[in-house]
Amino acid sequence: MSSINPMPGSELRLWRRRFLGQAGLGLGAAALAGLWHGSTRDCDAGMAHAGPPAEPGGHRSVPRAKRVISLFMHGGPSQLELFDYKPALRSMHGRELPESIRQTQRLTGMTSGQKSFPIAAPLSRYRVSGESGAWVSELLPWTGRVVDRLAIVRSLYTEAINHDPAVTLMQTGHQQPGRPSFGAWASYGLGSESENLPAFVVLISRGSAARPADPLYARLWGSGFLPSNHQGTPLRAGADPVLYLSNPAGISRTIRRGQLDLLSALNLQQQEREGDPETAARIAQFELAFRMQSAVPELTDMAEETAETLAMYGAESERPGSFAHNCLIARRLVERGVRFVQLYHRGWDQHYNLPSDLRLQCRDVDQASAALVLDLERRGLLDETLVVWCGEFGRTVYSQGALEPQNYGRDHHGGCFSGWLAGGGVRAGQVLGETDDFSVSVVRDPVHVHDLNATLLHLLGVDHTKLTWRFQGRDYRLTDVSGRVIAGLI
Q: What is the pLDDT of residue 59?
């Protein structure tokens, strides 16, 4: 199975141009034909080149999922309060964390100077939920009701310990910026199923916790060194969801069509002269934007949604920009063939005020996350849609600063954290992985960030080792140089 790679070298590009020119078809027209009309064919071609991944037993798999909705809790939710049940810590509340345990934990600059590391028992109680008997926090009652449709992973881990490198690693496979995001890789490897919407869409909501939100940079949904038409398109709340999409005052749709035709003709001439793939990508983006002028207003018009559906997602579903509203938009996007939908919910960095802020954040996302799974299921979309819920890392078992009854926090912790997956070929109704008694280290079934991404690509029908792009002399991929498919999740 050959890797997906651009054919490098100026001589090869010249040979291709000469061949296509002799065949009576310019390179620009060929590129546009693939970009404008590829949709499903792009998907099939990408998978054929990448090669279907092998099952753990050596058998070839077929793709379970066609699309992904990523629910990213930006800031690092506390695994201790949500999914990693540690009842024994209640009797240890306020005691000093044993030095033998603390020595295995990497400290950030925010707590490295602390003289005391008091254990903070989990804020929340847990309930046994579903037929699977999973322990889920009382802060997530709606999630508990759909737990049999989920695979909860308690053994995620990462090397990164600060927000920006940790989020960048989770989104792009590397702690340093500059590489393509997961959504860009999915767009590149699988193509698009939609003619009128981007393959990759980004939605951002701000949490209810009254705290400064950590920054989210556009490079987190960027295309890196892949062609720019694979980058994510942010969809904002309000009357103008996509920047620069609307026509200026005095410019009709007919006038805009004429402008684009002229611009496309000029760009095609440049493409045939220079063979720069970015020129073809630019033309394709202009054409997609023109079609989006009609598609986006229809997408964001909730008039056709029933009262029952809106109630399922919660009262906030009718407020544009809220997490609940974005979950509903995400369902509408995948219905229309969007390949990858990335939701960011900000405000999970609880260094202080954890008892109040964590409750607010859970209230923001709990009902809507569960509703999304149920809504996809009742519409027959869950089997083909991967839903992923996680943050960039977890939180410490000890308190950051003084341990007060109603005002304490937890620092960053990459040694273990929790999340869940649903749909798209995921083995539901299970809890995978185990941490030690203090939720500091993984002791069973570790799942690295690269392992998670390798598994998601596998479920999409792509071998993560074959989905590559040659750049600066070597083949790059989402999982860098490691990653394994976690058979227990499939």
A: 37
**pLDDT value of residue 213:** 67
For the chain, give the mean pLDDT. Answer: 86
| pLDDT value for 41 | 34
pLDDT at site 15: 42
Higher pLDDT, 205 or 236: 205
Reported as a single tens digit per residue, the pLDDT across 138-151 is 999 999 999 999 99
Question: Both tokens of residue 54?
Answer: 């092998």
CA distance 452 to 445: 12
Entry pTM: 0.84
pLDDT at 257: 76
Cβ neighbours of 80 (radius 10 Å) = 28
Report yes or no on 241 lying in a domain. yes
In a domain, 24, yes or no: no
Task: With respect to residue 376, please indicate whether it lies within any of the assigned structural domains.
Answer: yes
**8 part of a folded domain:** no
Structural domain of residue 234, as residue ranges? 40-56+70-489
Burial of 116 (C-beta count, 10 Å sphere; 0-12/13-18/19+) = exposed
Q: Has residue 63 got a pLDDT over 80?
A: no
How many independent structural domains does the chain possess? 1
Asked if 207 and 361 touch (Cβ cutoff 8 Å), the reply is yes
User: In this structure, are residues 344 and 214 in contact, taking their beta carbons and an 8 Å threshold?
Assistant: no
Sign of CA dihedral 35, 41, 43, 47: negative
List all residues 6 or more positions away from 464 whose beta carbon is below 8 Å from its beta carbon.
53, 453, 454, 457, 458, 477, 478, 479, 483, 485
pLDDT (tens digit, 9 = 90+) per residue, 372-402?
999 999 999 999 999 999 999 999 999 998 9
Q: Would you say residue 354 has pLDDT above 70?
A: yes
